[in-house]
Write a structure and sequence with these properties.
five-stranded antiparallel β-sheet; Peptide Deformylase; about 160 residues
Length: about 160
Amino acid sequence: MGRIRVYGEDVLRKKAEEIRNMDAEVRKLIKNMLSTMTRKNGLGLAAPQIGAPKRIFLALNEERSGIITAINPVLADAEGEEIDLEGCLSFPEAYFSIQRARKAVLKAYDEKGKEFIIEAEGLLARCFQHEMDHLNGKLIIDYATDEEKKVWREKIKNSRKSS
């Protein structure tokens, strides 16, 4: 199982690399991601969050009771706006109000290398956008106000001192 990388670790700020071959290493990474996401009760998980700078994310599709594996994903379209609280496995106990598109269209490849397109709205659309941010080195704190950033950076600094 993978260790969740937390705010401050360099891998979270790097743009993830495209997957060129669907080989055993990629399948092992996906299995590791699924195990980690399940263990942490996450709604989604991007490969950089477990230290692998690869363009893969998983998202829980509650409507279909399944997991979406997105390899080399692209947000093909987005529309509408909504603001909601978001948390992140890489940013424990922090929640920020973030404006995102209400609907999103994702184009990606599955673990078998087959291309798919999925339209989502609400929580799943938000999850797609959040995980895409991870693949591009962007974190939820980047959406925070200066005051929120100051408060959370201080909390993180203090929690690291005590652990």
